[in-house]
Amino acid sequence: MNPTLKRMFGATAAVATSAIALLGTGAGDAGAAGHSSHRSHSAHCDRAERPIWSDGPSRNMTGHGCSLPDTKRRWYTVEIDTLVQPHHKTEHLNGEVDRTETLHNKTIRCLGYTSGNGTVNWFGCPPD
Known about the structure:
By secondary structure, this protein is an alpha+beta fold.
């Protein structure tokens, strides 16, 4: 067989194998997503605080009385009974607060969290 033809068949086989592997990985994720009743990617907090700065809400939030998700992943849905949002006059956390807004039954998506000492620090929470 011609060496060029052999290389072409080899390259075609490699591409086909990679495509099948990628499709198999996607199918595995799709199957796992379909059976999400076994694992929860959502959390619940009785109360949370999220500062509001002059340019909009903070991307961080502190939760209290939270149940944490069963699994580690990148995005979490956090259901909050009471969300307190102090509107700061400056860009400093210790700065003066103009007013405080209290919202009930809010759902916020966050990229991740750390926890300790009875609080959960949610981060990467885009504004609504």
